[in-house]
Amino acid sequence: MTRQELHATSALAAVFATRLLGLFMIYPVFAAYARHLEGATPEMIGLALGAYGLTQGLLQIPFGLLSDRVGRKVVIAGGLALFGVGSAVAALSSSIEGVLIGRILQGMGAVGSVVLALIADLTREEVRTRAMAIVGVTIGLAFVVAIAVGPLLAAVIGVPGIFWLTAALALFGIAVTLLLVPTPPRVVRHRDAEAVPALLLRVLRDRELLRLDFAIFSLHAILTASFLAVPALLGRALHLGNAADWKLYLPVLAASIVLMVPAVLLAEKGSRMKEVFVATIMVLAGSLLALALGGASAIVVVAGLVLFFAAFNTMEAVLPSLITTTAPAGAKGTATGIYSSAQFLGIFFGGAVGGWALATGGGGAVFGFTLAVALVWLALAARMKRPGRYKSHIVPLSRETAGAGSLAALLQAVPGVVEAAIAPEEGVAYLKIDPSRFDAAAVARIAGAGISAAVGADRMQAERRQATGGAEG
Fold first, then answer.
1. Which runs of E-coded beta strand occur in 103-232?
2. Could you give the CA distance from residue 44 to residue 41 in angstroms, rounded to a whole number?
3. ∠79-83-84 over CA atoms, to 5°?
4. In what helix (H) or strand (E) does residue 221 lie, and over which residues does it extend?
5. In sequence order, what are the residues at sequence separation of 6 or more whose Cβ sits closer than 8 angstroms to the Cβ of residue 23?
6. Could you tell me whether strands 428-433 and 417-423 are parallel, antiparallel, or unpaired per DSSP bridges?
7. What is the number of other CB atoms lying within 10 angstroms of the CB of residue 196?
8. In order of start, what are the domains of the chain with their CATH numbers?
9. Nearest 5°: phi and psi at 376?
10. Which pTM value belongs to this model?
11. For 271, left (φ over 0), alpha (ψ -120 to 50), or beta?
């Protein structure tokens, strides 16, 4: 990566991280805080916790499409402004209804897809995967830091203080976007980074992609619902006050990461993706069962939380890889957009149904609900196809090359090319490849000087059609 590409990627990753920090710091402390708000009921608390997921899920793809028309930085700044306003509304509210409105406004700052599209605008095709990986690592770190630090900050500045900090982080993100992030020379719809409306139906018909969408939906529904019950569980089993929860979360999260790393390596390097995927769901279900039945035992609760976060972090690491390898060539951005929307809708579902379960049967009912979701997920995952070890590969094309209608067929005939899609408006070909058999030299010849064969074939077909039409006339 060039210095400018690294600078732009790092700045936008920081924008992504600061926004997620504010959202996730609320998770471990919200249920205990919200009980004291005017009009609070378990149903309303769950709804308020998950409400931002509804507007996030509904607006992710539309905001990405809007940024194609009005510019990325304008939409990012506007979305962060809405996010900041929502944080301020939540901070000022003394009623659960006011916090609910604030959370809905926070969710309207749905700029994640736009940030990724801007990174694509500012990086070359050959380094874009690395740039997206930097963002992915940043998101993972933001989650771990937020869960560990949230209770500590709540003890010092209170939950309203966290909302005010979140508003300040939104202002910081606006400043970084407008002052430090370069403006791209032109806005291009990148099929590997954002949704393409023409591809939505194709992606929604893909059963394997739908399994992965349900996976991220279930994962975040379980996470959100669980945090409605975990704080009270820690108080009963470990006699921790809300201000001291960070002393548990910090070592638990550290231990979960230690367990996560070998699982991810086995999945990615050991070609055991399906086995690790299914086993991780089983571990997640087991952790939920432990939390449901072992509420009086500190050892069981701590072990359950370690396994819970190990399973969660493992899924967060392997699911994006599965989306990339499963998506059709040239449709990764569309598949990722739907996947992201499913994630946020899962947050809303988990909060809403989890709150209802809390009101109906307490923490045990919440863990019963999450366990049921995990078991349905496990049943669907057991029937998934074994993922191929495919990768995405982008081939730059000249203007003449991009217009050759037979180019996709020529590229797809190359050994190791599983699927090819041409994006003339971007001047590239998107390939899904099997790295073990991929003939990069043959692709280079076809995409470069050797393209004359494709152009010649197109011309011959055109001349044949013209001659046929002339004879018929």
1. none
2. 5
3. 115
4. helix 207-238
5. 52, 106, 146, 166
6. antiparallel
7. 19
8. 1-187 (1.20.1250.20), 205-387 (1.20.1250.20), 396-472 (3.30.70)
9. -60, -45
10. 0.88
11. left
- Per-residue pLDDT of 402-446, as tens digits, reads 555 578 888 888 888 888 888 887 778 888 888 888 888 888 888
Measure the CA–CA gap between 123 and 353, rounded to whole angstroms.
Answer: 41
86 vs 52, 55, 168, 170, CA distance in Å? 10, 12, 12, 10
CB 364 within 8 A of CB 394: no
d(CA 274, CA 383): 10
DSSP assignment letter at 404:
-
Please say whether the beta carbons of 264 and 382 come within 8 A: no
Any residues with CB less than 8 A from the CB of 339 and at least 6 apart, and which? 209, 212, 213, 216, 319, 323
Residue range 114-157, pLDDT digits in tens? 888 888 888 877 787 788 888 888 888 888 889 889 989 998 99
Distance CA 56, CA 365 (A): 27
Mind listing the pLDDT tens digit for each residue in 271-303?
788 999 999 999 999 999 999 987 778 899 999
Rounded CA-CA distance 299/238 in Å is: 9
* Core vs surface per residue 59-94: b (16+ CB within 10 A) or e: bbbebbbbbeeebbbebbbbbbbbbbbbbbbbbebe
Using CA atoms, how far apart are residues 180 and 347, in angstroms rounded to an integer? 32
* Nearest Cα to Cα of residue 302 among 370, 369, 230: 230
Tokens 């916790």 -> residue: 49
Q: Could you give the maximum distance between any two Cα atoms of the chain, in Å?
A: 91
Kindly tell me the sign of the dihedral angle through the C-alpha atoms of 216, 103, 333, 14: negative
Buried b (16+ CB within 10 A) or exposed e, 253-265: bebbeebbeebbe
Q: CA 259, CA 314: separation in Å to the nearest integer?
A: 9
State the Cα–Cα distance between residues 117 and 194, nearest whole angstrom: 6
In this structure, are residues 67 and 114 in contact, taking their beta carbons and an 8 Å threshold? yes
294: three-class secondary structure by DSSP: coil
